[in-house]
Amino acid sequence: MGILCWPMLIAFSNFGKLASIAIGCLIGFPVAAAADEGMWLFNAPPLKQLKEKYNFEPTPQWLEHLQKASVRFNSGGSGSFVSENGLVITNHHVGADTLQKISSQEHNYLRDGFYARTQTEEIKSTDLELNVLMSMEDVTARVNGAVKPGMTSDQASSARNSAIAAIEKESKDKTGLRSDVVTLYRGGDYHLYRYKRYDDIRLVFAPEQQMAFFGGDPDNFEYPRFDLDICFFRVYENGQPAKIDNFLKWNARGPSDGELTFVSGSPGKTDRQLTLDELADTRDRWLPYLLRMFNRREVLELAYSARSFENARKARDDLFGDQNNRKRYDGYLAGLLDPQTWSALRAREQKLRDAIGRDPKLKSTTAAYDRIKRAEAEIAKNAPLYNYLEQERPSTVGYRGPRAFSGNLFKYARLLVRTIDERAKPNGERIPAFRDSAHESLELELFSTEPIYDDYEILRLNDSLTDFASQFGADNPLVQKVLAGKSPHARAVELVSGTKLKDLAARKDLYGKEAAALQASHDPMIDLARLIDRPARDARKIYDAQEETKKQAYSEIAKARFAIEGTSNYPDATFTLRLSYGTVRGYEQDGKQIPAFTDFAGLYQRSAEHDNKPPFEIPQRWIDKKSALDLSTHFNFVSDADIIGGNSGSPVVNKAGEFAGIIFDGIGRDAALRRRRSVQRAVPTNF
Amino acid sequence: MGILCWPMLIAFSNFGKLASIAIGCLIGFPVAAAADEGMWLFNAPPLKQLKEKYNFEPTPQWLEHLQKASVRFNSGGSGSFVSENGLVITNHHVGADTLQKISSQEHNYLRDGFYARTQTEEIKSTDLELNVLMSMEDVTARVNGAVKPGMTSDQASSARNSAIAAIEKESKDKTGLRSDVVTLYRGGDYHLYRYKRYDDIRLVFAPEQQMAFFGGDPDNFEYPRFDLDICFFRVYENGQPAKIDNFLKWNARGPSDGELTFVSGSPGKTDRQLTLDELADTRDRWLPYLLRMFNRREVLELAYSARSFENARKARDDLFGDQNNRKRYDGYLAGLLDPQTWSALRAREQKLRDAIGRDPKLKSTTAAYDRIKRAEAEIAKNAPLYNYLEQERPSTVGYRGPRAFSGNLFKYARLLVRTIDERAKPNGERIPAFRDSAHESLELELFSTEPIYDDYEILRLNDSLTDFASQFGADNPLVQKVLAGKSPHARAVELVSGTKLKDLAARKDLYGKEAAALQASHDPMIDLARLIDRPARDARKIYDAQEETKKQAYSEIAKARFAIEGTSNYPDATFTLRLSYGTVRGYEQDGKQIPAFTDFAGLYQRSAEHDNKPPFEIPQRWIDKKSALDLSTHFNFVSDADIIGGNSGSPVVNKAGEFAGIIFDGIGRDAALRRRRSVQRAVPTNF
Predict the structure, then answer these.
(1) Which residue of A has its CA nearest to B332?
(2) pLDDT tens digits for B147-179?
(3) Interval A403-413: pLDDT, tens
(4) B627-647: buried (b, 16+ CB within 10 Å) or exposed (e) per residue?
(5) A200-206 and A231-237 as β-strands: parallel, antiparallel, unpaired?
(6) Of A287, A296, A487, which is closest to B338 when you measure between CB atoms?
(7) What is the per-residue pLDDT across B310-324, written as a single tens digit (0 to 9) for each?
(8) Contacting residues of B for A469, CB less than 8 Å apart
(9) Nearest-by-Cβ selection for B334 from A216, A487, A613
(10) What does the CA dihedral B639, B642, B644, B647 come to, rounded to 10 degrees?
(11) How close does chain A come to B32, measured CA to CA in Å?
(12) Is the sign of the CA dihedral B561, B565, B566, B569 positive or negative?
């Protein structure tokens, strides 16, 4: 998602009773005449803009404190430290992945919420990893130096990967920190990011999902809102709450209307530097593909959920994610189909291309646009195989499986087969997720204690195998090999009931083995992962080579842009730490003034308008305690800071560096784009 | 759908109180070791089979009575007369279309039900047409005689259509009856069907949808069931209840376990005579296409419905239809993806082809298979244009619009533009729906008093225009012309708010005009229909020519089959009257014996298992009156008669020709196919 929910004052000791709560929770998006664009690097902050527009000059200490108080959730979100003993606040919908995994038929923490009265009651997550960015270092020269003139795309890609692997390994060995080389400006720069890594994460508090996601899908990406979209975790080290030097002081007042605020978090992915050709492919192929997928999953999960409460519990987090994505990409597509947005994008590109064409030193860069177009066409051609067999797109956020094989059990099989094959290779030649520097994260994922439900695995695998057969045709030789003479349903039943990978001990045992022993295990799911490994890797190879071509071309364009516009710009989001800023304020919509803040009175009113029926029902204890609340207390708010998915859970910080709110959603759909356009910010964004 | 709900004894006079009700409602599907296959023509009934297996010999009078007591709902279903003063029983889900259209924000008859205490309280439908089959006549020779040797597919198609139009017009002029030439055996035979037509249809009774569709999507196409899926209409003539000679006597006992029963109704479409090549295209292209469409619509309607109760009311019937279709086609696809089913289909075709190859007189028919394959490949190539601009597939059930332009307002625009263009042509050259013989049905549709909701029209049109842009790419010239420089949403708003077609008087006025005057009206929706009329007609022309090629080829194969197997067979379903028969009995599933009957006790028990929550909630008055019911009363039942979608609402009749139950669903998904296969009936079916 990406908006703001702001807990102004939560009386934790009394939360069980809700007696003395005064909560404020708010929303933020880049709107209005003077919205502040930019997802800035912490090592290239917008000092000039802040000085000029707000007369505010953050000190290096201010920036470092905020950077180190910011926490990345590797499951796909942001958060921040808010106590010296490891307390982290994030969104409920960021914590939902863990809430789902630690729940059972007896304890539905995702739906019902949770509160640990003492530290001993805190519940350990199954596979959650948090990262805190400790340092950044420009390694562009070394990475690019590995690529020699005359290399093919393939060779260049290998050389670059190898250099990156070496840099990461050196850094990891030297510092003990998680070390990731991050590609910025789509290949313009490479920076080495070092993270402190936490993987003993315990749940402290979550409200009922109904309070966190009040209004459900209808209100999602909309405003005004009334959501308590928060939860708290605590990070542990060596079995003890971690000691945190950089945590955000809690501001009990919250921000005022018109106040300058900052957002520090990890926006996932923006497409602001894509060429028009690649955007056209996004609009006409990629987004329609994604929307078909999310529609399909949503229908599958809804139909399954309607069968029983227990089904609904098992599918809840997946359903939330798929509905959220469906609405997000619907909005993105609507934006790209708006001809005014499109002409603005065209004009922006044309302006840059004209400037490039006029400069004799840059002129050769013109060809880079065509190289991107051709590479994207190859990617499109290769997409069915790549998407269904390898993965949907490379993700920085853990594993994203191939579309043909949904479910956790295939995921484990793929990770095992790949781990064993990849570790036999030199570190520099491996797929990034299997490099030495990433092995702790890999093990966390593979050895997750997340529960596995056979019926839900079969449901998803049957559906994805059916989809696979529809995509390639049932007579396709690969489809026939995968289905092994069975119907998708019979094959899914056979695989799920035959595999031993449900068992953590079995996964640990196989993880220690060599390839031959893995094969000798004759686990049907592993055999399947093995069966499709060759064509999947072939598809990856094509994809990687074309991505490398694009990377080189984008790097040329980025250099030209630096030469023309100067370096006072920010790179597309890459799920790494960024700083945004903006003003808390209301806005006009369809001729109506929408105030910046909502309050508790509005929550009860909206629920009443819908007869307190789902998704607008308020939990009983909130109804019982209504009279104990000050109904004029601020609940949600909007600001015009620039955010996107991945920013969910980011702290909203005031000039004093205090925690003053939390991002939880963005006002999306085409409306947001249109508003951006009106302020000369015709940049398509995922939100 | 297609199953059985059987009202054993409904005390109508007391229904408001539900005091003395004893209801039985049951389900039927072709299963088990000796299931009875066949959807037989009333003029070629399975006399031999009935005599041999059941020692039952229906008399010509018995058949004629049943034929004339059977009623086709042109909105897509079946029913029967059950009183001499025009009372018709059908399924609630067949009547739902009308229940939706006569409802308003104040009166939600679809959800809440309805009961007219007196005839004056009965509510007139907005555009419902019922047909009663009066006679059948073989006109094959005359239709085929119009096609001369050496004609192209195009010419042959025109010649055949022209002959059909002439036959229909002659018959209509002579008898005053609706006259349709029906294509049987996919081109093997042509029969002239004459119908008595009723279009003053009034609602008498409907239960709450929650009772009609208890268990909702999860229980749909499943058994055991507990649904009161019925409603009653009354047909009027000249403002008075119609006098009906042939109506079914009500049997108050209902059928017994093991009893032979008959089903008389209009199954919509089966694919049992398709070649393997055409089935492969159905499996790999057509069904995946349909499922993507239904998924998309379901998500759209669910998201819209969740926003308010009024939205949910407006979208209810569409949502029901889309969910029903999604589950139906899911099951059909699963069947075709079952390799055992597929090999049985292959073996069946091979057997026929071998026999054809062995017979010197038939040998030339071998080439017909390849002609079908090539024609289907052309249809597939043309499908995007045909589906998005013209219609999804020709439908015998009223208008099925082009996918790019959802909603009633475009439908009216298309009907107006086409009516005016087509009536300028000789009757024999027109598109079938615009022939003289069909003009009453056309006017009923065009002058419907169904309410139009701007927001819902915009929602659907925006979605279908977006889908259209995704299908062809936003830069496609036709997409650009259609969108006219606007986003899909802005264009939908412009069209829906600008058109006058909401207004029935405006439609009537334009209907009387010539093409030039229509154009001069400058109605934006009419202009759009006009804009795409040329490419839409071009796509139709390609489609029709290929269908003609297939028709000729299938006709050859049908003749060869007659020669080899004799004529003791039945044609694929074509939404015309058929007779099926079967035995009421339980069956075994996953090693468990499922009894034939359910009862009221089971209804309350299933609801309790789901905490009486949707879709398993029982209306309050049913809860209040539980103690007044005999809980052991039969409610739903299964038989093994051969049925499919379109059969919904068909009467289940005993040997005495009495009404003993009503079809309301079929046990679908791949399970049904698998059972069929096990009894050597490896025929794929839509159900």
Answers:
(1) A466
(2) 999 999 889 989 999 999 999 999 999 999 999
(3) 999 999 999 99
(4) eebeeebbbbbbbbbbbbbbb
(5) antiparallel
(6) A487
(7) 999 999 999 999 999
(8) 284, 337
(9) A487
(10) -70
(11) 21
(12) negative
